[in-house]
Model the fold of this input.
Amino acid sequence: MTKIAVLGNGRVGGNLAAALTKAGHEVTTADRTPGAAAKAASAAEVVINATPGSGSLERLTALREPLHGKILIDVSNATIDGPDGLPADLLYPGSSLAEQLQQALPDTLIVKTLNTMLYPVMTAPTMLAAAPTVFLSGDDAQAKQSVRELLTDLGWQPDWITDLGGIQTARATEAAILFVPHVIRSTGFKPFAISVTH
Done:
């Protein structure tokens, strides 16, 4: 059992919190009440960033002390939205939210994952017709191993998990968000993920 704090209680955060609780972990969800995020992060071993990516850097930088030495799983994408509310461009071109977080929080172990799919797939990867791929980006091997174990608890098969390397590789997976509006317009709002086949 791992003590996990989920920051963000929207569809993504709520979905992850419910699934991880069901898997036997002790999960706390922090809403926007002042002090809630700091309190939840302080008591947790692993913190999940499921806050809107455009404001994540500011929110999490304010939690530097509670996040000290913790694993921070970043599942958000930082985008500039178009008039239809769908992602139109990247907020950090030439970089990524994960890299910005790691730079701002040098004593926190940032791992990027679960950001290349619609949120229902995060906790139910077998719902798709073909095997999806989930990626890991991060500079700490042990932190990535811990996240790999949590992904397994969410139903991800070991061979569906691809470690891309250091935190800089997160800019590739974050850029994949630009597929989303075009796929949704083409096929409708149906669960999908990126899949790498060999």
